[in-house]
Amino acid sequence: MDQWKGKVAIVTGASAGIGAAIAQALVHHGMVVVGLARRQEKMQAIADELAKANEPGKLYAVKVDLKSEEDILAAFEWVDKELGGADVLVNNAAYLKASFLKDGKSEDWRSMIDINVLSVCICTREYLKSMERRQNQHGHIFIINSVAGHSVEVSIAGVYCGTKHAVRAISQCLRRELADKNSTIKVTTISPGLTKTEATLRHLAHLGLQKALEVTDVTQALVDVLTSSPVTQICEVILTPIPNMSVY
Predict the structure, then answer these.
(1) Interatomic CA distance for residues 116 and 196, integer angstroms
(2) CB 47 within 8 A of CB 26
């Protein structure tokens, strides 16, 4: 990770769960991390703890509603102005509201599309524009997806699964777009299975599931990808707990 020390990373959904763990891991490795989430106070508490621990990097907590394009644009403008722009982008934020299609609410579908798909596209667009302005090709885009973006194993979360399949297709097109431009910016999609977070723990017993990934499993995968050689592009990483609970 030496090549990334002092570099800037943007992590969406950094107030809890996988996003918070990724932000902490990158700070531990000496990166300057900008967390984007609505719960700024939670990110600031994490930033204060990291500072007390004398971690080599730094975490900035920026309040952003990822359903608001205006908020996202303002955040990227701030990163460019105050920190010189981001080198790594981690599109982590996601929203899940499970329901059968017959019983679903339009507002929940809009939230899933806005956060799971549109915010990824907007953040990635602004990151690429910034990289182009700075003539920086030493960058990496991560999309934290889900095994739900590779197969459909349940019927109660169709729209959520749809957003995750969409993100996978978008990431594949993005990788090809960058290759067509001879860009060396890498794109990696990390798709975990069920992971223990504050949003999923309460469902484990209800679903009768005993095995789940830890957030550290996902962060370690991301760090491992960042340490790959300059000529290596790791396109997709699929993580599932043992014993394997999916078709993978």
Answers:
(1) 19
(2) no
Q: Which residues contact 29 (CB under 8 A, 6 or more apart)?
A: 1, 4, 5, 56, 57, 223
Q: Looking at this protein, which amino acid is placed at residue 143?
A: I
And the tokens for 71?
A: 């908020």
2 by DSSP, 3-state: which? helix
Tokens (6 digits) for 14:
């950094």
Q: Is the Cβ–Cβ distance between 191 and 150 less than 8 Å? A: yes
| CB contact burial 193-220 (16+ within 10 A = b; e otherwise) | bbbbbeebeeeeeeeeeeebbebebbbe
DSSP code for 66: T
Give the whole-angstrom CA distance, residue 169 versus residue 96: 19
Per-residue pLDDT of the chain (248 residues; tens, 9 = 90+): 889 999 999 999 999 999 999 999 999 999 999 999 999 999 999 999 999 999 999 999 999 999 999 999 999 999 999 999 999 999 999 988 877 877 888 999 999 999 999 999 999 999 999 999 999 999 999 999 988 778 776 667 788 999 999 999 999 999 999 999 999 999 999 999 888 776 655 555 555 455 788 999 999 999 999 999 999 999 999 998 887 655 44
pLDDT digits (tens, 9 = 90+) for 108-157: 999 999 999 999 999 999 999 999 999 999 999 999 998 877 877 666 77
Q: Phi/psi at 84 (nearest 5 deg)? A: 85, 10
Whether 248 is a known active-site residue: answer no
The SS3 call for residue 62 is strand
One of 60, 95, 127, 160 is an active-site residue; which one?
160
Helix (H, G, I), strand (E, B) or coil at 57: coil
